[in-house]
Amino acid sequence: MSINLEAAVAPGFVEKAPLERYVDPDRPSLAGRSRAELAAALGEIGVPPAQRKMRVQQLWHWLYVRGVTTFDAMTSVSKELRAALENRFTVARPEVVAEQVSADGTRKWLLRLPGENPRERPHEVECVYIPETGRGTLCVSSQVGCTLNCPFCHTGTQRLVRNLTAGEIVGQIMVARDCLGDWPGLPLPTLPRLGRGNGAVVPTDGGRLVTNIVMMGMGEPLYNFEAVRDALLVVADNEGIAISRRKITVSTSGVVPNIRRTGDEIGVMLAVSLHAVRDDLRDELVPLNRKYPIETLLDACRNYPGLTNAKRITFEYVMLKGINDSLADAKALVRLLAGIPAKINLIPFNPWPGTRYECSDWETIEKFSEVVFDAGYSAPVRTPRGRDILAACGQLKSATEKLSARERMALRAMAMTE
Ligand code: SAH
Ligand code: SF4
Hints:
The protein is an alpha/beta fold. Helix content is about 30%, strand content about 15%. It contains 12 helices and 11 strands. The strands form 2 sheets. It has a 9-stranded mixed beta sheet, with helices on one face. The protein starts with about 35 loop residues before the first helix and ends with a helix. Bound molecules: S-adenosyl-L-homocysteine and iron/sulfur cluster (SF4). The site of S-adenosyl-L-homocysteine has 17 residues, from strand 8 and strand 10.
């Protein structure tokens, strides 16, 4: 038996075939494309302009309502057109390298994407599904790695960074629905169920498994604004995947110039990673604060298009022991947010190998949340999900980068003795 060193990751991962079998550089994928891009693709294969609108409608339905994975399955499209499409395009999704299931039912997929040129090493991103009663949230990545280096975040320590395309962002949602069997009329999961626990997924009232999207995976979504916008407009489209804008949240560490655009051009819910109430501390925890300090950030929040008491901004606050978790911090937090329609999400810090931070004690978190609650905010403490498979907030990092030099050597040694 040989071990593929590039794909050897945490226990519980299934190895899949190499990228070459899935990505055909001469036949790009239509999965994740907008209507305008589909029309252009049809133009490329000679569909006359007068027919394109109707053909786009058909493709849209098969891609985003039915979730088909071959042109052949698009039975309302003529045989000739299906053949022409097949010749020039695919409907491939990002490749699933591995699936992991947490004891609490959280699922994490490791996806492999092509490098920026065909000869470059492929990139990897992670995508996490969190089932809860009545809803299922998919945590989607916007970049490979992140340029922003918040010191408590695992993703920020990753060297490799590239923006995902809109297709790759929509592709994550399509992959998750493929793996969960979340398309109408299609067979149930294609991947083996792994991991401890039963990993059961329970359909929600409407029968759908993925009901909410949060752009809280790897990367800073507002540093890849156009692709995130184009992707979310595909996902929210009523005639397709149809996840309502109110169930889509973009989380930002505070890229002020793109906050208004998020409201104007996408119209989704906003979450802001605040984490500190003083500029000196936030400069350290969220280094982007040096460029856009707290007051500038909060001004942008106050002016967020569509902001009302029914459509509040979520402020995320990671609880770091002895760093930002005092009662004085809690009081300053509620003073700071006074007048902004806000929800406050206290996130227990999720540790990762090599981090210098610790999660606040439970008692401290409770006291902190009481202050916030007494000030009139609901202050849910977000229960960490999927910690055992490093799928929780801020733990995501491409798995191949997760191996230390020592681990790599050990694996190599194992591979040689087998
Ligand atoms: N880059 C964006 C979105 C991705 S991070 C942002 O920073 O908002 C999603 C959330 O997880 C952010 O609030 C982030 O600060 C938080 N986070 C990062 N690392 C974490 C960790 N180790 N434990 C808990 N939350 C973390
Ligand atoms: Fe990037 Fe967000 Fe992590 Fe900061 S917390 S490094 S912005 S992914």
